[in-house]
Amino acid sequence: MIKTVQTTPYDDQKMGTAGLRRKSKIVMQPHYVENFMQSIFNTIGDLKGKTFLVGGDGRFYNDVAIQKIIKMAAANGVSKLIIGQNGFISTPAGSHVILKHKADGGFVLSASHNPGGENGDFGIKYANETGGQAPSAITDKIYQNTKNIKEYKICDVPDIDLSKLGKQELCGMEIEIIDPVSDYVNMMQEIFDFNAIKKLFANGFTMRFDAMNAVTGPYAQRIFEEILGAKKGSVVNAAPLPDFGGLHPDPNLVYAKDLVDLMFSDKAPDFGAANDGDGDRNMILGKKFFVTPSDSLAILTDNYKYIPAYKDGIYGVAKSAATSTAVGRVAKAHNIGYYEVPTGWKYFVNLMDSKRITICGEESFGTGASHIREKDGIWAVLFWLSIIAATGKSVEEITIEHWKKYGRSYYMRFDFEGISTETADKLMADLEAKLPSLNGKEINGFTVEKAAPFVYQDPVDGSSTKNGLVISFKDGSRIVYRLSGTGSSGATLRVYLEKYETEKLLEKPQGMLEDILKAAMDIAEITPRTGKQHADVIT
Ligand code: G16
Fold first, then answer.
1. 451 forms bridges with which residues in the sheet?
2. Which atom of ligand 1 is closest in space to residue 110's alpha carbon?
3. Where does residue 190 rank: exposed (0-12), middle (13-18), buried (19+ CB within 10 A)?
């Protein structure tokens, strides 16, 4: 029953910020998934006695890829697979399953917030036994193996029925199909005070949660509507669809447009939130009010005492370098550890495992904590609802009070998309070479305090990672440049801008960041090099 199939390598199977992400049509090429999976199995080595999680966000091609992975795992000697019913699992729920079952890792089939469908993107995230995505040292080895692959092993059997809960067997491997929602719900009940949130809804509090036709619909309906008592219909776009109903499942001001329009209208409910394709990202809105992910991280951290799981204290907090410095001020006030890591959730894992941090987050709409090793969209929403329930204040009041206490980091991200890789790489290389000459210079009214690449030294494993270029100014403002690692073709230049203010707290970010944007465009010569006058996406 076990077949060995001859194959030839693909040269583009290098994982990015979070797993392998490619156009669906690329992944659908013969042996593409098989080559990648066999390379992972070869990298891990002996699979006897090993257990892995498998699931996905339900996007186009999940159903085909998952069957291939199951049959290959069996042929390669994996002892057990735990699979979300019908092949579904959110990224945070997957991380939880890995930790709870002490599994050796897992495969979440998702290109996260990237669009799905035959003309969209597909992806595979590979987590190791930490429940977090495998570190670069491992993904580099996997990439080397993809370049030399000659054959793969697969069980030649019919597809498995993934709808039936319980145990089955395939080619000597045990398969356990689980309800992907219930364990996750239990974990959330252990972290938060559900009764407090129930009271909030019982008193007429209203919310809209946009699941963007992606994986969190069933989780959100169970938690917010069925358990916590939010009005039926509070969760919209709740049925996961293979092409996300044409939506770009990225919970930001641009792509979660319907939610944003509602929240900025007179019909706005008290609270609005959205999650992305695989349920790890979140956006938080109040009535006519948007909370930046960087502020959200700072506010959650400042209010940890309202959450039963954290009430006795938290270890520390971390953010990616591109995220605003807002949470740093909170860490200082609470006298807790504070870390800055490269972009990529995997960099938080060692900090959590070594109990250096409890909470972490990124500007890219991700917040989470050490209950799992991925960011967690629904967790962030429950955290916000808990603060609202405990304080009786609105999202806007909570945020403005935070700014009054700590000052405000005006913050925006500008994405220049669809640049050729060559142009983008040259722009970054030339900019990096120019950085030393900027130190001490005045640009557009801003005096440069330090201009240097961001280099992270992991305090646990000693590894060193360079990610992005940072220009810090004397007044606390910053520009960060980096290239995205989650696109499926070409390059996206991300420019992150921050300006710190203690007096003018209620201005429009665009206006506050206008000068620094001009400086950022000039310093990197963005228009002459890319032909772009403006960013394609602003969040
Ligand atoms: C992934 C990573 C995040 C990262 C984000 C954006 O998120 O897990 O840590 O911030 O990509 O990466 P980039 O700026 O390189 O595109 P997700 O939600 O896509 O898995």
1. 471
2. 20
3. exposed
